[in-house]
Specification:
By secondary structure, the chain is mainly β. The chain has a domain of 253 residues: 3 Solenoid (Pectate Lyase C-like), CATH 2.160.20. 8% of the residues lie in helices and 38% in strands. The chain contains 2 helices and 34 strands. The protein has a 25-stranded parallel beta sheet that branches. The chain starts with a helix and ends with a strand.
Length: 369
């Protein structure tokens, strides 16, 4: 009897030992990949070492100090539009700074309210060696010494976003670039600087399907785009009605172009294919408005002078992106240049004969559209 009890005890101990070994070898539960924040303190804590790969901003708030991002992370919101949830910069400081060696994605919210004349980068500053991706963002009403919206010394990609009413005491009201900059399907409007109202670059910058309108500079140099070094390429874009000193100064410096509509090339030396210079006007004096989609745009409508079918921007692009800034579809070819793809489809008129007389005894027709 004693031997049987001893055998059972040994068996139980063996099973427990095996279970302990299996449990010790099992991986620990992974940390949550996304984390929600609702104020500046929670955002700072979530950005600490070992924090989540994604951070969701659930409501608008004001930063109490600049936010330095020192690791790879995506920060996003899920509002109806980019301006449904916004981050206001702290007093007299930039909002976000991306440190070297990190890749940061900002998506679907607004950044506004920076006011620091000493700063490079009012809304966002990107260090050399850092990578920033801006997608479906609204960067507006920021002020800095250089780069009112963004200052980039690293590599920055901007997609489906709007920059408006940003300003700089020096260069680059919307953005100042000393690194590598790629902009696609985005709008720059009503930005202001000493030079480069929309954008100033000393690095390599490219703009594809971008609308740059209604910006200004104070010294008759590149109210739209301003080249101080490096290179700038404009393709399938509208650069129009950018003013300085009462005249159009849409660009400055040697500019490579492919299917670009300017209102004036005064002050710059564009070279390339399919350059058009034409008078053009926009609704709402080039101020971005809600025309559908997550970010504001400057629309081309059938009320725009010259529209619909002889509009100089219409059916001008050949290598078309599948969608415009709003997410609306573009035709595979013969699309409109700029960030906004209008619908200039003519109404279909159908004339239906009505052989039966009406109450007055008259035969008539019905016109529908």
């Amino acid at each position: 009897m004693a031997g049987a009890v001893k055998s059972r005890s040994v068996a139980i101990l063996s099973v427990l030992s095996i279970l302990a070994t299996l449990l010790s070898a099992a991986p620990l539960p992974a940390a949550a990949s996304s984390h929600a924040v609702a104020n500046a303190a929670q955002l700072a804590a979530a950005l600490g070492p070992g924090g989540p790969a994604e951070i969701e901003i659930t409501t608008s708030f004001t930063l109490t100090s600049p936010v330095t991002i020192g690791r790879n992370v995506t920060i996003y919101a899920n509002g109806a539009t980019a301006e449904s949830i916004e981050i206001k910069a702290p007093p007299n400081s930039p909002a976000f700074m991306v440190a070297a060696g990190n890749t940061v994605t900002l998506r679907s919210f607004g950044i506004w309210g920076a006011n620091d004349r000493r700063a490079k980068g009012g809304g966002i500053a990107v260090d050399s060696g850092a990578t920033l991706i801006v997608d479906m963002m609204s960067i507006h009403d920021n002020f800095a010494g250089e780069g009112g919206g963004i200052y980039n010394a690293g590599t920055t990609t901007i997609k489906n976003s709007v920059f408006y009413r940003n300003s700089a005491a020096g260069k680059g009201g919307g953005i100042s670039n000393d690194g590598t900059l790629n902009v696609e399907n985005s709008t720059f409007a009503k930005n202001d600087a000493q030079q480069g109202g929309a954008a100033s670059t000393a690095g390599a910058a490219s703009f594809n399907f971008v609308t740059i309108v209604g910006n200004s500079s104070k010294n008759k140099i590149g109210a739209g785009t301003h080249l101080t070094g490096g290179s700038i390429t404009l393709s399938h874009s509208i650069v129009a009605n950018n003013f300085s000193g009462g005249s159009f100064y849409d660009c400055s410096g040697q500019t490579t172009v492919d299917r670009v509509l300017f209102s004036s090339t005064q002050g710059c030396q564009p070279n390339g294919d399919h350059l058009t210079v034409a008078a053009i006007s926009f609704p709402n004096s080039e101020l971005p408005m809600d025309n559908g989609g997550p970010t504001k745009t400057v629309a081309l409508t059938d009320q725009t002078p010259g529209a619909p079918f002889d509009h100089p921007a219409y059916a001008y692009g050949t290598t078309c992106l599948p969608k415009d800034q709003r997410g609306s579809g573009r035709p595979a070819s013969a699309c409109t240049v700029g960030a906004f793809e209008p619908d200039f489809t003519p109404p279909v008129v159908v004339l239906t004969q009505n052989p039966a007389p009406n109450a007055a005894g008259w035969h008539g027709s019905t016109v529908t559209s």
